[in-house]
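pasting for ref
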Amino acid sequence: MDDGQLSTLSCPDSPLYLAATMKVASQMKQMGKLNRSLRDKRAKLYIIRRCVVMLLRWSD
């Protein structure tokens, strides 16, 4: 990358800067969805694990 492109990327009004910012925002949004999905799956596994332990320890 030459100095002209570098100065263009550092200028907030440039199209390249806006495109790079939008790309980063999109990636962060995808990471947020992934983190939410992982949190939901961990919560479900926690509930299942607690139920299995309860059933194993349960006696009349």
